[in-house]
Amino acid sequence: FNNKKKNLPPGPPSLPIIGNFHQLGPLPHQSLWKLSRRYGPVMLIRLGGTPTIVISSPDAAREALKTHDLDSCSRPQMVGTGRLSYDSLDVAFVEYGDYWRELRTLCVLELFSMKRVQSFRYIREEEVGSMIESIAKSAESGTPVNMSEKFMALTANFTCRVAFGKPFQGTELEDEGFMDMVHEGMAMLGSFSASDYFPQLGWIVDRFTGLHSRLEKSFRNLDDLYQKVIEEHRNTNKSNEGKEDIVDVLLKMEKDQTELAGVRLKEDNIKAILMNIFLGGVDTGAVVMDWTMAELARNPRVMRKAREEIRSCVGNKKWVVEEDLSGLKYLKLVLKEVMRLHPPGVLLIPRETIGHFKLSGYDVDPKSCVYVNAWGMGRDPGLWERPEEFVPERFEDSPIDYKGNHFELIPFGAGRRRCPGMSMVMAMIELALANVLHSFDWELPEGMTEGDVNMEEGAGLAVFKKVPLTLLPIKASHKIDA
Length: 482
Ligand code: HEM
Known about the structure:
Its cofactor is heme. The chain is an alpha+beta fold. It has one domain: CATH 1.10.630.10. The chain is built from 20 helices and 13 strands. Strand 1 (42-47) and strand 2 (50-55) form a beta hairpin. Helix 7 (121-141) runs antiparallel to helix 8, helix 8 runs antiparallel to helix 15 (267-298) and helix 13 packs across helix 15. The N and C termini lie far apart (76 Å). The site of protoporphyrin IX containing FE has 26 residues, from helix 15 and helix 20. Protoporphyrin IX containing FE binds next to helix 15 and helix 20.
């Protein structure tokens, strides 16, 4: 009766019990985009018993994430995210409240501040340097490079050094299977657990399908890893003025008896924050670089133009350094175009509504789940000319950027839950790509043409290239000073 009085958003009919689950398919962002072409930019579906609003237009996204920011800024509490965040002690998946507000402030001011990003500059330069040197070996022997692997190792090394003070490659982190743990953790965060949607009986399904034990195993592996690193930090009396890693900062806060929402910060809070850094930072940065090189390999004109800009700006210097980056205008346009076509978090991180509000004239109830289809908006022919084509010039005289103010391009989200790691990750991505293009010319492996570059997407919390990208590096023909 109540629903009859409400003006609910349109949406596809749903089945009893499962709702619209059967319509999600292996790549839900693509299926939801197709459905929203039919039902409109504010669409209501049901996932099990959860009403879910799917937003697919910049106007509706602005309304939800800016006008009604406070009403839509919580997160749904899920089994996977709850377990891996030590019962919601993290910043990304915890529901809205005092704890989130205080932890978020701490992240913005302390952990991911510009000052902190700058303090990690030497790590970015060293890690990009070692990646370029390892690619140079393949160039010398004429061997194609698996770029997807290279970028993943780069972001993993960078993130481990930033957080733990040591890289992942060549340390026990590599031997203990750190990368597998991160990927499994990402899979668990992105998994659809039956308990989330069918509270009464879902747990039986989760036990039957093995999801429950997989999640427990993933939690235990990650927990052991954090524990070891925390103990190592406690046991070494290092004086690392100016070279503090994130664990150092968090342990200092614990020692200073820092409180979050009236509760003292403890080991579990530290571990939950580390989870956000690893599971938020490793895959996302790597997939952006991977998609960039794939698009450049398919579009030699763009590759040439980006490379020429870098080389004319940097000249004969061996390395592109951070001071050079502000001059690389075209590279920045290339990255906007990559974020348009390949935002890693295709549906952002789901929100949960707190209060009732009207969205484009429709009623949205509290406790509804909200997905924003950033991927769909990036490919909407009503918003972009020839949307499937890779044309960085479209941003040339446009004010649009990806920082959360232009709702047609929001790979980092918008509003109060916008990504706090943006500056940290973009500094790494720009430096790495600029050096990759400066040091080498890139060719497709023998027998391949531009049209053969596979652009299929693989399902995951960060949507990756299904087929890894392999390219042949040729040492740059221009003279580079040693
Ligand atoms: C290209 C790389 C990245 C992309 C595309 C990305 C994207 C996103 C998105 C879409 C959200 C949700 C925003 C919203 O709900 O409006 C988010 C949240 C978040 N991201 Fe990122 N992210 C990236 C890298 C990182 C890195 C490197 C870190 C940490 C070092 C990080 C930490 C976080 C955290 C902690 C949140 C939760 C914020 C909150 O709920 O208050 N992200 N990110």
